[in-house]
Amino acid sequence: MVDYRIELVGVPVADVDRSRAFYGDTLGWPVDHDQVVSDEIRFVQVTPPGSACSIAFGTGISDMPAGSLRALQCVVTSIEEAHADLKGRGVEVSDIDEQAWGRFVYFADPDGNTWSIQELPDYSKMAEWQEEQGAESLL
């Protein structure tokens, strides 16, 4: 079987400089590239810390309407630390959402593209929960 690794996700934005400032300065995510390829194309690539997948935005990168991307997701080991980090950086972030399948916080970039940050559950507890609910595991 061939490994298919997601490398890059395009994020539709209206203002490249504002988005670069949000992802690079506000979130503190490393800006890997910021290149003007031509008069029609500017390419900015940002990688969340610890991620093997980057996001890209710019001019001439996507034909999706700005702010139309939903449910980009990162996984963290501590939702409390992620929540505190985002709040400390001035990001408008939700309260922690407790679910059987994980713990989440949510935020949006300046254009309205939405992100969820998930702390994965202890799957042994998930099996207990499924049993309590009479739910059948699909794994």
Structural class: alpha/beta
Q: Give the % helix.
A: 10-25%
**CATH homologous superfamily label:** 2,3-Dihydroxybiphenyl 1,2-Dioxygenase, domain 1
Average pLDDT reading: 94
Overview of the molecule:
This protein has 139 residues and is α/β, with parallel strands linked by helices. It has a single domain (8-133), classed as 2,3-Dihydroxybiphenyl 1,2-Dioxygenase, domain 1. Helix content is 23%, strand content 29%. The chain contains three helices and eight strands; from the N terminus they run E-H-E-E-E-E-H-E-E-E-H. The chain has helices at residues 16-26, 79-88, 123-133; strands at 8-10, 31-36, 42-46, 54-59, 72-76, 97-99, 102-108, 114-119. The chain has a four-stranded mixed β-sheet, covered by helices on one side. The chain is elongated, with a radius of gyration of 17 Å. The protein starts with 7 loop residues before the first strand and ends in a 6-residue tail after the last helix. The model has no long low-confidence stretch (mean pLDDT 94). One of its GO terms (molecular function) is lyase activity. Keywords: Dioxygenase, Lyase, Oxidoreductase. This is Catechol 2,3-dioxygenase-like lactoylglutathione lyase family enzyme. Residues 5-120 form the VOC domain. InterPro entries: Glyas_Bleomycin-R_OHBP_Dase (IPR029068), Glyas_Fos-R_dOase_dom (IPR004360), VOC_core (IPR037523).
